[in-house]
Design goal:
mainly alpha, 10 helices, 434 Repressor (Amino-terminal Domain), 229 residues
């Protein structure tokens, strides 16, 4: 079961509420973010969680349909993820510029806090690209390497800035070229599964259907072998 809040809401419950408030069927939401309605049902009913990019895409759709209005609505959903790492990943992909501040927060513009460009020990995200500087030559070298060879590996000591240069440096640079398909994922405990879900939005609909059908067959077989009904 999903982790519950004091009010008795789970991640799936609140996701379902936002989707219904947006007036979207599972199929309609799935088409908007590149996933199947069956997978969205798993998020709402089966205690499963979307990948961070799928979470971010869902939040943007909810905003467009006025199902949510402020950052705290999205934050409330993110905080219902069962694992702390996944909660942080959800919060990291949320961009404050998507949200309109409530009226009481925008009365005095002089006292509004501005985004802090200093990330401390936390890696820069793609949304932090405007604050990321000092690695321009390295990013240019990476662009050339990516264009010239099939595989480019960035290696270095922990905390040396590998993730920052990827997410706030090379990825925004490649997006500006407009000719790249970009899929980002973290291997976690099941690297091939993480990679497969990251690639799904870029695949043709027929291929996605086949992959999802295969995943459903695998789950059914696993349940049967465990004696579950």
């Amino acid at each position: 079961m999903d982790e519950q809040t004091d009010q008795g809401h789970s991640f799936g419950d609140l996701f379902y509420r936002y989707r219904r408030r947006a007036g979207l069927s599972r199929r309609a939401l799935g088409e908007a973010i590149g996933y199947s309605g069956a997978l969205i049902q798993d998020w709402e009913r089966e205690g499963k969680y979307p990948l961070p990019q799928a979470f971010a895409d869902s939040i943007r759709i909810f905003l467009e349909h006025e199902a949510i209005a402020c950052y705290s609505d999205a934050e409330a959903l993110a905080n219902l993820a069962e694992k702390p790492d996944r909660r942080q990943e959800y919060l990291d992909v949320l961009q404050p510029t998507w949200f309109v501040a409530p009226p009481e927060e925008s009365v005095n513009t002089d006292t509004q806090s501005k985004p802090c460009p200093y990330r401390g020990l936390i890696a820069f995200r793609e949304a932090d690209a405007p604050f990321f500087f000092g690695r321009e030559i390295y990013v240019q070298q990476l662009q050339k390497a990516v264009a010239d060879q099939a595989l480019t590996v960035i290696e270095g000591a922990s905390g040396s800035g590998k993730s920052s240069v990827v997410y706030a440096g090379i990825i925004p640079a490649l997006r500006r070229q407009g000719c790249w398909q970009i899929a980002a994922c973290r291997p976690a405990q099941e690297p091939f599964s993480s990679l497969a879900f990251a690639l799904l939005p870029h695949l043709q609909e027929k291929i996605k259907d086949e992959l999802e059908r295969a995943a459903e067959h695998h789950l059914l077989l696993t349940s049967w072998l465990r004696g579950e009904r």
